Amino acid sequence: MRIKIPYGSRPGEKVISEGFFACPFCRYKRPYVKKKVVKVNYFGLISIASSKALMEYIHCGGCLKVFPVETIETENQLKVQLLDYTLPSSSLLDQWQFAYQKLQCEEILGKNPEFNSLRFPILTTSADQMQKAGASIKLKMFDDTKVHMYNILSLSNQYFEGKAKYKFDPSPADENVKEFSEMAHYILSKLPN
Question: Is the pTM of this model over 0.85?
Fold first, then answer.
C-alpha cells in the first residue's frame, strides 16, 4: 500500500506594511496595505514560505484597486491631484452628531437596559453603521460614508419587505427602523458630490 503525500509549491501573500497614501484612482487619502507575493513550498502539512518576493504591490482600502509599489514614493504622491472636498456651509459633522443623538445610537450600542424591549439586531447594526459613518465624515472619506448610509437603507428595506411578505405584526422597532432610514436619506442629501 502506497501513501501519497502532497508536495509542490503555490503562491502566497504577506503583508509588509500599512499606511495612508494619495490614491491615484480615488484621488484622495486612503488607507493602503503593501503586500508581497511569495512562493510557498509545501510537503504534506508543512508549508515554508520563501523570503524572495515574486511581486510586490499596493492594495487601496478605498477603491480596492492594486497599484505598483512606486505609487507610494514621495515624487509619485506629489503628482496625484487630490480632489478638494469642502463641507457644506452647515457642518456635516454637526448634522451627523444630531442624527446620531436623535437615533440614540450610543444607547443602542451601549446595551442600555432601557432599550431591552427594542433589542433587534437591525437596530444594533444600523447604529453601528451610523457610528462608522461618523468616523468616515471626520476623515473626509465621503465615499465610505455613502456606503454606510446605503447599508442602513438596504437593511431597512429588507426589514420592511420581510414584514410585508410574512405579514408580521407591528413591533416596537418599526418606528426606529423608519427613523434610521429617514436619517440615512438626510445625511446622504448633505454629502458633497
Answer: no
